[in-house]
Design a protein that fits this description.
It is built from eleven helices and 14 strands. With 337 residues, it is of the alpha/beta class. It folds into two domains: 243 residues, 3-Layer(aba) Sandwich (Rossmann fold), CATH 3.40.50; 89 residues, Alpha-Beta Plaits (2-Layer Sandwich). The two termini are 40 Å apart. The relative contact order is 0.12. The structure holds adenosine-5'-triphosphate. The site of adenosine-5'-triphosphate has 12 residues, from strand 1, strand 2 and helix 1. One of its GO terms (biological process) is amino acid transport. It holds the Pfam family NIL. InterPro entries: AAA+_ATPase, ABC_transporter-like_ATP-bd, ABC_transporter-like_CS, ACT-like_dom_sf, MetN_ABC, MetN_ABC_transporter-like, NIL_domain, P-loop_NTPase. Keywords: Amino-acid transport, ATP-binding, Cell membrane, Membrane, Nucleotide-binding, Translocase, Transport.
Length: 337
Amino acid sequence: MIQINNVSKIYRSKKGTVTAVKDVSLTIEAGEIFGMIGYSGAGKSTLLRMLNGLEIPTDGDVIVNGKSITKCSSAELRKSRQKIGMIFQHFNLLWSRTVLDNILFPLEIANVSKKERVERAKELIKLVGLEGRENAYPSELSGGQKQRVGIARALANNPDVLLCDEATSALDPETTDSILSLLTSINKQLGITIVMITHEMHVIQKVCQRVAVMENGRVVEEGHVVDVFTHPQQEITKKFVKQVRGTDEELNQQVIIESNGNDKTYRLTFKNGQANQPHISEVVKHFDIEINILQGKIVQTAEGSYGTLTIQLVGDLNNIKEAISYLESKQVEVEVA
Ligand SMILES: Nc1ncnc2c1ncn2[C@@H]1O[C@H](COP(=O)(O)OP(=O)(O)OP(=O)(O)O)[C@@H](O)[C@H]1O
């Protein structure tokens, strides 16, 4: 478990002071994939780097698996860091070393015997899908392959936590997907806690269970990904959600059923597997109303799917009310759009 307690970071230079992180408190559970999203300059990298002591907070404390990262000796910090792997946007590989030698490097530093480190490196090469490329140099690899080396190297000392600093931002969409799938399977297979920072909501959508939204050094919103996606509170969160959910402007479509004065437009939200249920056809069968579907979308997240459907209900007001009660009884959220 990672506890971030009232952490702030102020950079002071001749040019002045910058408060990069302001009074952030978060708890990240063991084994989860936790995302931090924000625009450039929001403070994500600074916060992430405080989780492994690459930056020391000006105030507050970071506790990883019961041990303070901020209030320990440098020897203790070195030991703790071996259990916290990190991967980077630009991979940070050693260019003069082969794939195998890059992965061996952290094992050499940890004084693992030669036999054991070669065995471990080979296991990792298999885990990340790089068999056959052991003797290649980073310059001979694609971006996705380089990140696979980065992941193998980060996992070398069996860490409990993997920090991902914009790990897919330099990759094309297809390669991004394959790296995100690899991270998800590593999280499942090895039970490693993953903390990732990104400015792309589809990354959060695909792999994270919970998310914190950062703006101007603060966490302005946090929660389960499905809840944040379906009910974003802050303007900045709404903007990020629009990256994957589409905009309300897309709703400006012609209404094709003639109004009788009672019709209204509703937004239905289906969560917890409800998106797969035939609720709309049940409403049409059981209530004497007409339904005009204006827009619909199902989004897959790491915690299952959720859907939104914007509909116009046309008919007798009482029938419309009954239909809405029926939908609500099926855990479908109904709002007037
Ligand atoms: N070493 C430093 N010295 C001075 N200011 C810094 C330093 N590192 C970061 N900052 C400043 O702190 C603020 C937060 O930066 P940070 O890199 O944490 O944001 P970010 O959300 O990760 O953005 P990006 O994705 O662009 O890196 C920015 O205003 C940045 O200029």
